[in-house]
Amino acid sequence: MSLNVIDLIKGQLGPALVSQAASQFGESESGISKAIGGLLPAVVGGLANNADKPGVVDAITQASSSGILGNLLGGSSSNPIISNLLSSIFGDKVSGLINSIASFSGVSNTSAGSLLNLVTGATVGTIGKYAADNNLGASGISSLLNDQKGIISSLLPAGLSLASFGLGAENWFGQAKETVSSVTSTAKDNIAEGVATARENVSEGAREVRERFENNNNNNQGGGSIWKWLLPLLLLLAAGYFLWKQCEKKQTTTTTTATSDSATASSTADTATTGTATPVPATAKTDENIDLNGVMLKGYKGGMEDQMIAFLKSDGYKNAADDSALKDKWYDFDHVNFKMGSSTELETGSQGQLDNLVAILKAFPDAKIKVGGYTDKTGNEASNVKLSKARAEYIKAALAKSGVGAQVIAADGYGSQFAKVDAKASDAERAADRKMAVRFAK
């Protein structure tokens, strides 16, 4: 199975970035998420359609060393690599793409344009990094992009199509056009064959009727006057019957075949959609004010901060007899995420929730916590444990720098020990297992 690069890119476009983009652009998180969901397959499709252009490959190669992934929100809009690349792959269709995405997601055209730059930056940066990490040359990058052509159209969200972007499917996926032509040609041949067969059957039927008439007329001369008006009617009925039966037969065959092919295509699209990139977006969460002894923290209602504060205020921590009474309740970070494969670089937007945790610990100085890191089921388990441990240690060190180090008594990595999603599931589904969490400890 060929690599789905959209799964790689989604690691750069996580909840933390969506939240920060929503705040920066003045849009809802659901609108930002919806726009990104439509732009990502469109941008990857544009690159795939231009995979053999040297300029496209050069842009991807340059992006890997430009540092663009480290500043997607701040650097994408003014990066010449991105602006030149968009002109190269979309030409004069850029404005149509922006308008379609704005209308589809409910964000403004200005926000849609900024998000197009952001998604393009994340795309070329991620592909460039993957190419560098795997020693892919120009031909390898072109081959990787060409492999995406078979899945792009199935990853577009419901309500969007290449045509809605002003991008004809025949220009991106020529094979589809050839297939349509072939089906059309076959249908024409079947119709022609059906008409010819119907003509032969009508002629045969007419001949049989005529012979019977002649035989009956010879045997019964007195009935000739009846047959003079009955014969044309019988011939007309016979012709209509044979023509109707033959056309019905051909139409049924053609319809059944087309329906079967359509069902197969639909099944394939459903499988591709379920397997990759583009999952049904979860209901967007909105940051609200969480009361910490009169100080308002920004966080999700029912999220990590809200749950921890409620537990501490209820004296649940104070009344816990020992550590065993606390060990089974973990609080997952909503916003703290590491960049793909890194244990030292957080995604944009992560620091805010770390600051919230510091504020909570300072407000309850007797409380102690333990940090845990988790991975999904893919990859080498020893490497997973090492990575998750390093990430937990990074969080612990960051909290220590903020003055609450004495309250963080441990940082452990569990790898995929507690992962629930199958390794063969899509990257979006497996993301639930890749997390950082804390629990109270004694």
Helix run count? 18
**H-E string:** HHHHHHHHHHHHHEEHHEHEHEHE
Largest sheet: 4 strands, mixed
Percent of residues in β-strands: 5-15%
Low-confidence stretches: 173-188, 250-282
Classify the helix fraction into a percent range: 55-70%
Offer a few descriptive terms.
alpha+beta; 442 residues; 18 helices
What would your notes on this structure say?
This protein has 442 residues and is an alpha+beta fold. The protein contains 18 helices and 6 strands. The chain has helices at residues 5-9, 15-25, 29-49, 54-63, 72-75, 80-90, 94-105, 109-133, 138-146, 152-155, 169-172, 174-219, 224-275, 304-313, 316-319, 351-363, 381-404, 427-430, and strands spanning 287-292, 295-300, 331-332, 368-374, 408-413, 435-441. It has a 4-stranded mixed β-sheet. Helix 3 (29-49) packs antiparallel against helix 7 (94-105), helix 4 crosses helix 8 (109-133) and helix 12 (174-219) packs antiparallel against helix 13. The protein is globular. It starts with a helix and ends with a strand. Residues 173-188 and 250-282 have low confidence and may be disordered.
Helices and strands in order:
Elements: H1 5-9, H2 15-25, H3 29-49, H4 54-63, H5 72-75, H6 80-90, H7 94-105, H8 109-133, H9 138-146, H10 152-155, H11 169-172, H12 174-219, H13 224-275, E1 287-292, E2 295-300, H14 304-313, H15 316-319, E3 331-332, H16 351-363, E4 368-374, H17 381-404, E5 408-413, H18 427-430, E6 435-441
Parallel strand pairs: 4-5
Antiparallel strand pairs: 1-2, 3-6, 4-6
Helix pairs in contact: 2-3, 3-7, 3-8, 3-9, 4-6, 4-8, 7-8, 12-13, 16-17
